[in-house]
Design a protein that fits this description.
311 residues; TIM Barrel; 13 helices; 10 strands; 14% strand; globular; HCY_dom
């Protein structure tokens, strides 16, 4: 059964975790690297486990793995063998699963919340390029080439035991179609597709979110449709655009409100945790059923979300 439906059949909302990479930076990691958080899978996997545990303690119903920028190509460029790259990609799921299982066995709140899911992060092709193109979608690859890029990593993450795939920060419908085509090779596997958005109506490459939702609505293995890694100020409007075109659950996990400069790889302006928490209530009222945070959000943000969502 669709694992998201299993949660939403019993709870009004599914709570995601928050940022992985920027939280690792808060713990002292230097992620100014093409591999981003996937670099920490090599260097300090126990710290990734700690971040997952922090989010579970804050109330998250789902851990998104540190595999966003992990790919066979990326690790091989770093000098790893294919076998080593495969082990690291699978390790991202194994770490999150171990954190979830240990937390759940020690939890005193099992009757107030669902058993958390492990969602294997599938970043876009632009994340492998590490040139900011996940916020543009101006790829030179066609759909079949994108299928080839995504197929092996998806297979490995499924084999590692992920409950669901988190196909996130997708900048164009072409890439969503390619991922959906790969999914059909794996019976019974579900994924959510979350796009990056440039404004209140359009995803990063300029296509409307409404047209993306309409196309994905007919795809059985797509468990939810939504937006991540985008400005919170666009989210309510985007939810309204999506819900006209689909009956699937709507998922949103935007950034904290700070703006990212892909060129300098720095964040600008400050965000208010209180404002983010208030916004999550508005997104739920607008129709989002799966809510969390992306870059620069923290366990404190997820704890504040849980405080009103689990009343």
């Amino acid at each position: 059964m669709n694992p998201i439906d299993q949660i939403l059949n019993n709870f009004q909302i599914m709570i995601l975790d928050g940022a992985m990479a920027t939280e690792l930076e808060n713990h002292g990691c230097n992620l100014n690297d093409r591999l981003w958080s996937a670099k920490v899978l090599m260097e300090n996997p126990e710290l990734i486990k700690q971040v997952h545990t922090d989010y579970f303690r804050a109330g998250a119903d789902c851990a998104i793995t540190a595999s966003y920028q992990a790919s066979l190509e990326g690790y091989k460029e770093r000098g790893l063998t294919e076998k080593e790259a495969i082990e690291l990609i699978k390790k991202s799921v194994e770490i999150a699963t171990r954190a979830r299982d240990e937390f759940w066995s020690d939890s005193n709140n099992q009757f107030n919340r669902p058993k958390p899911l492990v969602a294997a992060s599938i970043g876009p092709y632009g994340a492998f390029l590490a040139d900011g193109s996940e916020y543009k979608g101006d790829y030179l690859l066609n759909e079949d080439e994108l299928v080839v890029f995504h197929r092996e990593r998806i297979r490995l993450l499924i084999e590692a035991g992920a409950d669901i795939l988190a196909c996130e920060t997708i900048p164009c419908l072409l890439e969503a179609k390619a991922i959906t085509k790969v999914l059909k090779e794996f019976h019974g596997v579900y994924a959510w597709i979350s796009f990056s958005a440039k404004d209140e109506r359009h995803i990063s490459n300029g296509e409307t979110i409404a047209s993306c939702a309409k196309w994905l609505d007919g795809e059985e293995q797509i468990a939810a449709i939504g937006i991540n890694c985008s400005s919170p100020k666009f989210i309510t409007s985007l939810i309204n655009e999506i819900k006209v075109q689909t009956t699937k659950p709507i998922i949103v996990y935007p950034n904290s409100g700070e703006e990212y400069d892909a060129g300098s790889k720095t964040w600008n302006a400050m965000s208010s945790s209180e404002h983010f928490t208030t916004s999550t209530k508005d997104w739920f009222k607008a129709g989002a059923k799966i809510i969390g945070g992306c870059c620069r959000t923290t366990p404190n943000d997820i704890e504040a979300l849980t405080a009103w969502a689990r009343k």
